[in-house]
């Protein structure tokens, strides 16, 4: 045994040299530093000039890196999780060169020995991802309310109408405010903290807004008051380059908010979007909604359908779809574009960790 031990010691220097060689020759990771305020100001100017996707406003949250491509006519926000670069939504900017920009991002990831992923891409650009070798998985459906046709009248809107009336009888009102006083920021912080405590959760990010003053002050906030007290609020994500859609982002309410307050908020925001010239008001995504419904759907989407049908113990998939459905929206699919050799379960777990603030925070819940 002593002889074997001594022979093994002779192999130790070779092992150390091998590890050092791998560390020397492996491709370095891209810069993970977050954009500073100057970079965010430049990104805002880019979006105002070229336009952006429904997720464009989330760039200004500052928690994603910025990849410019196609002679800086396209901007792709992304974040790294383990060995993946995850882009948020479709590219922003000049759609005529989206294909070149997606390919450039693919090459950028490949140069660093990382996997490119596009999270929550639209139906409009699916052909581009397919042509570049990405595999597609349907994540759910986005709810878009037509502002021109939305109404509280009629039998189908009876439940929503009663909910709004109940909130009005409780004395709630809505107002858009910007900028906010220090006292009002403190009040909103208390509402946010109470909501997080009641849901036993923490702030998220990447594809979701979070309570951060620097981010929230970049657009008006919708405040719901009962008398003088703020009982709920929401931030808005304006469209860039068009009046196609106005979207809701961060929503927080007190556990004691009157019943119907959130329905009241949504109805008033839809009316505000209509009055401001927007074609649609977006209610957000219903995860796994509309996934795997066909008998010919791929196996992974059929499994996802089972989660939608039977997984409400862990997440209210059906409840969220039902809440959005009462506003009579149009539904548009959102997809995950990823490399075919990447196992889907591990990829989805990585994205959940990215949104949740990392694996350490995800596992501690």
UniProtKB/TrEMBL annotation:
<keyword id="KW-1003">Cell membrane</keyword>
<keyword id="KW-0472">Membrane</keyword>
<dbReference type="InterPro" id="IPR024320">
    <property type="entry name" value="LPG_synthase_C"/>
</dbReference>
<dbReference type="Pfam" id="PF09924">
    <property type="entry name" value="LPG_synthase_C"/>
</dbReference>
<dbReference type="InterPro" id="IPR016181">
    <property type="entry name" value="Acyl_CoA_acyltransferase"/>
</dbReference>
<dbReference type="InterPro" id="IPR051211">
    <property type="entry name" value="PG_lysyltransferase"/>
</dbReference>
<protein>
    <recommendedName>
        <fullName>Phosphatidylglycerol lysyltransferase C-terminal domain-containing protein</fullName>
    </recommendedName>
</protein>
<dbReference type="GO" id="GO:0055091">
    <property type="term" value="P:phospholipid homeostasis"/>
</dbReference>
<feature type="domain" description="Phosphatidylglycerol lysyltransferase C-terminal">
    <location>
        <begin position="46"/>
        <end position="338"/>
    </location>
</feature>
<dbReference type="GO" id="GO:0005886">
    <property type="term" value="C:plasma membrane"/>
</dbReference>
<keyword id="KW-0812">Transmembrane</keyword>
<keyword id="KW-1133">Transmembrane helix</keyword>
<dbReference type="GO" id="GO:0016755">
    <property type="term" value="F:aminoacyltransferase activity"/>
</dbReference>
């Amino acid at each position: 045994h002593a002889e074997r031990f001594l022979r093994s010691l002779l192999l130790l220097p070779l092992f150390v040299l091998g590890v050092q060689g791998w560390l020397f020759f492996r491709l370095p990771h891209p810069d993970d530093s977050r954009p500073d305020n100057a970079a965010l100001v430049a990104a805002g100017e880019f979006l105002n000039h070229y336009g952006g996707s429904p997720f464009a406003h989330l760039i200004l949250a500052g928690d994603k890196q910025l990849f410019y491509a196609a002679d800086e006519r396209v901007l792709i926000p992304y974040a790294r999780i383990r060995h993946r670069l995850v882009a948020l939504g479709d590219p922003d900017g000049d759609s005529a060169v989206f294909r070149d920009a997606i390919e450039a991002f693919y090459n950028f990831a490949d140069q660093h020995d990382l996997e490119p992923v596009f999270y929550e891409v639209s139906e409009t650009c699916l052909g581009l991802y397919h042509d570049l070798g990405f595999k597609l998985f349907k994540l759910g459906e986005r709810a878009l309310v037509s502002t021109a046709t939305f109404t509280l009248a009629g039998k189908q809107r009876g439940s929503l109408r009663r909910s709004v009336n109940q909130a009005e009888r409780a004395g709630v009102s809505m107002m858009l405010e910007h900028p906010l006083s220090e006292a009002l920021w403190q009040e909103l912080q208390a509402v946010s903290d109470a909501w997080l405590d009641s849901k036993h959760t923490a702030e998220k990010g990447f594809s979701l807004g979070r309570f951060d003053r620097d981010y929230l002050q970049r657009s008006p906030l919708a405040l719901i008051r009962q008398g003088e007290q703020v009982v709920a609020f929401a931030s808005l994500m304006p469209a860039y380059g068009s009046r196609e859609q106005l979207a809701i982002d961060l929503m927080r309410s007190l556990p004691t908010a009157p019943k119907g307050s959130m329905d009241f908020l949504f109805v008033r925001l839809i009316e505000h979007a209509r009055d401001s010239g927007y074609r649609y008001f977006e209610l957000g995504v219903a995860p796994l909604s509309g996934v795997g419904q066909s008998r010919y759907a791929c196996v992974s989407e059929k499994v996802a359908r089972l989660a939608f049908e039977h997984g409400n113990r862990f997440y209210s998939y059906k409840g969220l779809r039902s809440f959005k459905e009462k506003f009579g929206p149009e539904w548009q699919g959102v997809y995950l574009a990823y490399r075919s050799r990447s196992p889907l379960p591990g990829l989805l777990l990585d994205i959940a960790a990215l949104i949740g603030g990392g694996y350490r925070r995800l596992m501690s819940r």
